[in-house]
Amino acid sequence: MQCCLLLVLALLGATSASPPAPARPEAEAAALALPEDDGDDGDDGGDARCPLASETRTLSVSDPLAATTYRYVVVNHCRTFHGAQAVCRRCYGGQLASVHSPRVNALLRCRARLCTNRGQVWIGAVTRPRGHTVSCHWADGSPWNYSCWSRGYPLCSGCFCTALCTNNGRWRSVRCHAKLPFVCQY
Asked: Residue 113 gets which letter from DSSP?
């Protein structure tokens, strides 16, 4: 388990050579933000380059209530969830996208559909079983205040990452080691 935690921390860019210190409750919550790597053998890491402009489509979305503009990039090069998260951090200084409104969900679906011929793209939602229910949260730690699950999802049989369907905008639980295009937010 400690090895898996170090791998997650390395992907998050926050690892050290010494054993981890006893965790504080807030540190434990942060460590649980991403599910374990599900056996990904690191085959994503062989291609360390950032995506070319021809492999991406960008989108800016203004939020007048927050007086902020959010920037997104859809990358059509397939990666595992963790590989995609690493690219978002390394190349864009961001994270996999968190979606907080139907408007943003629809805009990301349309942009992803233009950019890729795959039916799904990674977004930054992760799920874990909690008894008979499912705990959903964003990898970036933002509040869980919107969802758009397909019927029968999220799955509660284990830890899953989340993909946005480019056909209907609905979300599905997908094993984190699957390779999909992805959406970064920065």
From this structure: H
Domains (range + CATH), the chain: 1-32 (no CATH), 41-185 (3.10.100.10)
Q: What is the pTM of this model?
A: 0.76
Kindly report the CA angle at 82 between 96 and 119, in degrees rounded to 5? Answer: 65
**Angstrom distances, CA of residue 21 to CA of 2, 27, 87, 178:** 11, 10, 28, 32
| Measured torsion, CA atoms of residues 71, 47, 165, 99, in degrees rounded to the nearest 10 | -30
**pLDDT tens track for 134-182:** 999 999 999 999 999 999 999 989 999 999 999 999 999 999 999 999 9
Which residue in the block uniquely carries the two structure tokens 């007086």? 67
